What does this fold into?
Amino acid sequence: MYALRAEELELEARLAENVGSPAFAELARLRHPERRGQEHDRAGELATAWATLVASEPGPRHRSDDRRHPESLVSLLSREIARLRLPLRLELRPDMQSRAACGDGVVFVCTGVSLRASEARRIAAHELLGHALPRLAARSHPLGLLRVGCARSSDDEEGRALHIEERSGLLDEGRRRELAWRHLAALWVAGGADAHDCVDRLRQFGCELEHAVALYARVARGGGLCRELEYLPAWLRFGRALHEDPPLAGWLAHGRASLDAAPVLRDEGVPLGDGRDPILDLSLASTRATRGCA
It folds into this structure.
């Protein structure tokens, strides 16, 4: 299992070395291929259905980095990090394609992004509960693999984070439509679509021009990474695991495990306490207080 993770990291290093080169797309299809199977077929069906959803936009918007407003993303993250007493720092970045991201002991926030309060709550839940807490839990686990990550752990981590959004009542029509557009755009780019083709197809679903260009830039970064192919299948995969074997799915709360690695770790007798996922029962204070109007 360590070797599998080392091979994955080696592939990602090769991707980093070949950003912008003709070899990048071929390497990206090794890391994020267009897979076949139950979850991937269903993900394509969901993306097609969700792409035409109409998103409601209630409430005012606030800058993501506005520390003076209590409903901004940076304010919400700061409060939750303090409330949960997490050893995390916040770092503002002006040049991120995503609105927030989680690193080792840090949560990055893209500056100047206009967000509704419900969007800020969803992003905070995704980053803190979905990404940061399992990584912090791994620090005290005796198995180092849970800190460096199992192969495909980052993919399954995204699926679990989406499940947390859904459980918190934050996977609304707008979020589902966004995930659908990303998934479809990734399929098109992986299949050879250029910028004009991808943007034109997104526009047919009602995507605004500026947003369509931003989606293409995200999906095609580096020369065609298409990491967005992983999100919806991983969400479906995690939901199935949670239904069929909840203790198995619970492994992902305790470190950077994957759903493929979890049964191996369990069979090997790696300790995991009672096998529960304590984070699934934890939600943001502001999410609980406002779920009825999210």
About this structure: DSSP finds 15 helices and five strands in the chain.
